[in-house]
User: Fold this.
Amino acid sequence: YPGGDIESSLLAEVGRWMSPLGKLMGLDWQMMVALLTSVVRKENTIPTLAVLYAQGAEGIGLGEVLAQHLSPAAALAFLAVQILFLPCVATVSTLHQETRSWGWTFLSISILFVISMGAGILRVKDEKLLQHLQAEAAVLVFPKARHQLSRQVMLAPGRAVKGIHQQSSIQERQ
Assistant:
């Protein structure tokens, strides 16, 4: 970053440009920059996050800082994207060397990009679907609680399943 300010760097601008895609997964521009730097080497992700999030925050670990900035669903989306994201430069070079075609190389990279972003977006959307399926499963397992569950799901879907499980264990003890 030429002026010494991370916020005005070229990489930060590219990250902000990609932030609408990141917002679909619950990720901010810093997380998108970390994904981009992983194209050079996958190991660059953690140091990039440390520089972007922990600048000036002495005594606070990166895990604590990320826990403040990311929801569990966004963290899992980031992991899914990171695992499936574009390969590093060395892998791209090997892919080109083996296929002897830039067309196949770019096609492979494009497919990986679409799959990784799709997996990240679906992971966040699955969080809501998972809560709904847990509620439905609780109704099947505890049919007496159907009315109460439907009322609680409308109020707070995540806590409804916990409440039903707690209530059923109390009933079993009696």
